[in-house]
Amino acid sequence: MGFNRHFAGLAALLLLPLAGCGGGSASLPPLQQASATDSEYRLGSGDEIRVFVYGLDPLNNTFMITDHGQLALPLIDPIDAAGMTVPQLEHAIADSLIAKQIVKQPNVNVQPLKLRPFYILGEVHNPGEYPYRHGLTVLSAVSIAGGYTFRADQKHMAITRTVNGHQTIGRAEPDTPVAPGDTIRVDEKWF
Question: Is 108 in contact with 90 (CB distance < 8 Å)?
């Protein structure tokens, strides 16, 4: 009798950590979707861009947004580029050139070259870091990572995303849009 009670207690202790795993990502709040005004790509640390200013060869080059979210260009002060859209950055560069009295009416063109990657981990065949593409969803990200494993919970995933400098985590469905820098976690399903 003592052995059975001891065995039952040991079994309960071993299974206790698994009790919290059943909910997984399904118990998270839904990931907040971007509004229509936020659907345009926002620059961030690690993005590589090409800047072209007609008639200003020192600015016509490829630059990377720093870890602090700044874009350091010749002739002007660093610009806080993280969170800006491409048109907003073009205007900020033009405004800086006008303020420094370098050009009266600058023609600025910014082109994103290499965007922040997204990350996928958990129950996919090839977890890791992948280049971001516009229009990416969780399902297409899973496809890029070699598809689901047989243990994957294919209905609920989690995405960790940085919004306004703060990390948020939320539940995602296969059709949830992926943003640059997102980390997708595909949990194991519990039968």
Answer: yes
AA letter at 153: D
Count of the separate structural domains present in the chain: 2
b/e per residue 59-94 (b: at least 16 CB within 10 A): beeebebeeebebebeebeebebbebebeebbebbb
Instruction: Decide if 9 is inside a domain.
Output: no
CA torsion angle 101 102 104 108 (round to 10): -130
Task: Tell me the whole-structure pTM to 2 decimals.
Answer: 0.69
**116: which DSSP letter?**
P
State how far the Cα of 97 lies from the Cα of 91, in Å rounded to an integer.
10
CATH of the domain at 84: 3.30.1950.10
What pLDDT digit, counting tens, does each position of 54-80 carry? 999 989 999 999 999 999 999 999 999
Q: How far apart are CA 115 and CA 123, in angstroms?
A: 25
Q: What residues make up the domain containing 164?
A: 25-39+116-188
Q: Is residue 142 part of a domain?
A: yes
Inform me whether the pLDDT recorded for 7 exceeds 70. no
